[in-house]
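Rotation project, supervised by the postdoc (A.L.). Task for the rotation student: set up a whole-complex structure prediction and record inputs and outputs verbatim in this book. Inputs entered:
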Amino acid sequence: MTLPSTPPLLQVQDLHVHLPTSAGQAHALRGLSFTLDKGQTLGVIGESGCGKSLTALAIMGLLPEGAQVTGSIRLNGQELLALKESELCRWRGARMAMVFQEPMTALNPLHTIAHQIAEPLRLHHGLDARAARARALQLLERVQLPRARERLDAYPHQLSGGQRQRVMISMALACAPDLLIADEPTTALDVTVQKEVLDLIGQLVREDGMGLLLISHDLGLMRDRVQQVMVMYGGGAVERATTEALFALPAHPYTRGLLAARPRLDGPRGARLSTIAGQVPPLHELAAGCAFAGRCPKAQSDCARQVPPWLAVGGDGVHQVRCPHWSLA
Amino acid sequence: MNAPALLEVRDLGRRFDLPRSVPWSRPEPLQALSGVSFSLQAGRSLGIVGESGSGKSTLARLVMALDRPTQGQVLFRGQNLHALAPTRLRELRADFQMVFQDPYGSLDPRQTVAQIVTEPLQVLPDRATGAPLSRAQLREHALQALADVGLRSADLDKYPHEFSGGQRQRIAIARALITRPALIVADEPVSALDVSVQAQVLNLMMDLQERLGLSYLFVSHDLAVVKLMCDDLLVLQSGRVVESGPTAEVLHAPGHPYTQALLAAVPGQEHH
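Outputs recorded:
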């Protein structure tokens, strides 16, 4: 229950993003709405080009030049789309922070680790160099970077991928943000390191009561990591559910197709995988109605004409699907 | 085992010299691979599993004779690849081909699909006559290879950027198939692809194996993919084989702590 006086941590309403491309204007986010409460964890899944990362960039105010945004993004009730860039700079890092996929390119190769972690502390908290360095050490110890004190003066290339991602996380946490967005934080990492980093993010989010938006193309990764999952396709959400319900009772034909296409550790050698016909269409070629209609085994003539409304699945009040032809079989 | 193995790797090792920290110091050696032995029969698949730095790609490059070992041998149909004369090796290359991980980086953007897939044939004479292949013959082979991977003849004159990631990987597979090889070394062939596209490419690779009797040396970090694609499995850690055997058995009851750790780290497993 949320009282009317306390707005949700993050409230995205009818968010549209148009991007200029060589093939014309692309309607890249098409009326996306969702909320995330304080202390909640929400996973966003979907294949490349479905708008996951764009959603993150829109929230952070980091969309590419020329992007047109309409709708509403509220953080703690504050409309972010109404903020000037200078005001947004005070929110970014301090109230909301992001961990990117590729820690090698997201870190500056010319600055030491200490310098990079200290930057948001000096900017947002006005710490002097000494205090910022001391705080940086605390942060590196908190993300369990081995030999943290020696690593303060190291450069990014001297660290492994997993260590660099720990540094990225410590930078994101430096100013104790309310919202943490992690966009494919472990895609570039080995499985054993991936597990450690996800464990770490989960632990820090619980300790600090942050809201977490975890973005991944890997459905399996969401299990055990987030409370709820939103499935995106073609710039919009097509299904939202608790993680448990999504794996037990996937309803949207796209979600069902994704789950069935994954090879399984307990599957037999040589059995053909079930596939989704066709491929993700380019953004500027999406149908007016359901974006998945062109590949959907259940599509009817009405699907491509209008975007279907949200329908409830089961009675838990969370599980919803945007498909009139959904079924659990 | 009476049948001679298609591929036999004996005590294979590769040492690299790291850059010197100071000019007069002795270069620090890095043993990327040591003492690796296995054999692969025709028509079978062997999975090579391990994390970055385990030596997976070094092993693939040595098997492809793209690099020379500092120890041991690679025998293809009984012939030591690294002892062959260059012309003989070039002829033999028709029998083993490679598919790389990144379908964006492995196709030349300035070449048409026809040029890309026929490249392996351009250095090979016709098997029957010994004469170089004519343009018409090359095009015919290219059409056949495209048909094998489910692409259309109209795609021959297009450029890589006109294709999606999954289609590009099909082009890369067509290029590998055009010489009718017995062995394909595939280095993480689907890890850059989305789940739904990955399923299409894996199905294609299984169909081709059945139809053409191919053997795969399948390098992957994804144990579920290896379970699907490979009869046998080799687990590498720090350049050494720590466990090997039939895939189903190894994954059902992993004996080495490293294999157990890899299995435990696979995300999203059902817990029974």
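Student's summary: The first strand of chain B starts at residue 7 and ends at 17.
Supervisor addendum: The first helix of chain B runs from residue 56 to 63.
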